[in-house]
Amino acid sequence: MSAEASALPWASAPAAGNAIGLYARWTPALDAKIEAAVQALRDASIQHGAGLLQSSSLGVEDMVITDLIARHRLPIDIATLDTGRLHAETLALIPAVQARYSREVAVFSPVAEAVITFVQREGDDAMYKSLDLRKACCGVRKMEPLGRMLAGRSAWITGLRREQSGARGEVAVDEDDGSGTGRRKISPLADWTWAEVWAYVQKYEVPYNPLHDQFMPSIGCAPCTRAIAVGEDFRAGRWWWEDSTKECGLHAKS
Is residue 149 among the annotated active site residues? Predict the structure, then answer.
């Protein structure tokens, strides 16, 4: 992808302040939540050792988790998916993380031949044609490389929060990931609020995707992400043309 800034129409408009100014509110509970998140990461690291991985979407929640891992010197690998359709702003966070924290970020991409075959057969914007084709696109670009990312791992860390959507309302800090392998999914920010995430970002100067300043709380592939309006659901900007649970399959329950 080009290193130029996103050409999305709302990305060229000046933000009303920034995400920190709009959302950050330190709550009385946040100190305890930070301590609990660090303990959850530490416990997972002790239990799973080299079998543990942070699978980072490079969204703000995952950036907070990366900061916690680095700040507390936890021996946890970090990886991300490059679907081939990410915003330039998202991709720019990979070298930013490596420079800020002196931590390598392993990048997993889809199989080029599979992407070419899919696009030739269904078109470059197949995701808009049907739910099945959108899920097929996610399968090629996300699910297959995720499988390679998690191969041989006994647990993975995510930025899921219960507040993000109804489908995520029961997210546990430590739960079976539904893969049928016994692999665990660790979500140390499960009970954090949006305001608390941004309060942490503000206090510790965590780098984040500037598209969050453009009213995009949940950022995925460029063709499948738009800004949300006041009052819209947190994940309304993902696959906005669909009446769906707004999931790609990475966090679907079995």
Answer: no
